[in-house]
Structure formats: structure tokens, C-alpha cells
């Protein structure tokens, strides 16, 4: 595993997403209770970008289909419940999922030292 410096510590803030490129992939960084969390910028639902996702209380919501995830564990909390930010009735959620089962975010191991953020990459 390699470790790559990806950001200055001050660039990663609570309640915000910070995008970086690592090995040809976009990774999103955020801070939860002071801890830096890192995950793939692609929603596991259909691979659309989470970069404009809404961050709230340690979670990120996909702006496209409303799937919601824990920022640090990657755990799926809600699966495909809206379209372009418009909530949909519960009966339609199965249709919005396109037959895909709920899946977690792909995480990256992040560390912080000397005012910089590092990611471990294969």
C-alpha cells in the first residue's frame, strides 16, 4: 500500500465535501467530529457523482437518487428515495433502485499529520 498526500488539513472541513484525484479516481473527503473520512465520489447506486451531495450530521445524501450514507463507515442508511432531490413516495423506492440492492460507499483509509491529509492506496 502507498500513502499519498492529498490535501492540507484546513481544506477538509466539517459539513463539507472536498474532492481530490488519486490514481485516476475522484475521492471525497470530509471531517466528522474532527476525524477525516474518505470515500469514492461515485454513489454505489448507479455510479453518479456524490460531489454535490448534501452533508448533514456525519452523513452524505446522493443528489440524484437520495441514497444516504454514513461518511466514516460508508454504511447505507437510505436507498434510492428521490429523483434529483425531489422526494418520492415509498411505493416507488423499489422502482428507483433499478433492482440494485443497498450497498455501502467504497472507503479509503485516511490519516492526518503535519497539517496534511494522506490516503492509503493500493
From TrEMBL:
Gene3D superfamilies the record matches: Rieske [2Fe-2S] iron-sulphur domain (2.102.10.10)
Signal peptide as annotated in the record: none
InterPro entries xrefs: Rieske_2Fe-2S (IPR017941), Rieske_2Fe-2S_sf (IPR036922)
SUPFAM superfamilies per record: ISP domain (SSF50022)
Required cofactor(s): [2Fe-2S] cluster
Family: Belongs to the bacterial ring-hydroxylating dioxygenase ferredoxin component family.
The name this protein goes by in its record: Rieske 2Fe-2S domain-containing protein
Organism: Banduia mediterranea
